[in-house]
Amino acid sequence: MSIGVVVFPGSNCDRDVRWAAQGCLNIPTRFLWHETRDLNGLDAVVLPGGFSYGDYLRCGAIARFAPVLESLVEFVARGGRVLGICNGFQVLTELGLLPGALTRNRSLHFICEDALLTVESNRTPWLMGHQRKDALTLPIAHGEGRYQCSDETLCQLQDDDAIALRYVNNPNGSVADIAGITNKTGNVLGLMPHPERACDPVIGGVDGRGLLQSLLG
Ligand SMILES: NC(=O)CC[C@H](N)C(=O)O
Prior knowledge:
With about 220 residues, the chain is an alpha/beta fold. The protein is built from 5 helices and 11 strands. Glutamine (GLN) binds near residues 50, 51, 55, 142 and 145.
């Protein structure tokens, strides 16, 4: 049982994910350089937060062409589990594995603070350790976290029960207070908050543990 953490030039939460998964939760973790195509033996893959390719063009727009992501698309099609955190969520929307887009925060400022969230769906394995309407506090740190999609996509997300997490006090202008969504089949989750920064009690809170624990199904 092990998970992979993709490393792009500019990723900066790859080590945080490894510390949270391996250091705090004993989940064997291996780094995946963006040029690799080898995902053999992995139970799940994390796309971590950061500033891949310096956030040029749009966050995630260049990372989307990395060789590792060709293998990731096949991995997802076979039912493999993928968690995209912050920049990872941005990459997943650019890649088309999740619908919609992450755009500049309504304030046009980078926001770095704790966010109160509610669990909207526990249909997928990611949040099965939680009840609907459970409250979680997780840190956010982003400049482009405003989730937007068409009305049609929003209806589809609602029909599919694919809205995983919502903000209680919407910090960035996301449509319908959306903080995280899954794909229709539920094996891909993208979220702007950082669960890996809420796994070690030393840094103030363990509300992210359930999400990372569910990487192993
Ligand atoms: N913490 C992060 O992953 C940052 C995400 C992204 N680069 C942004 O600023 O929106």
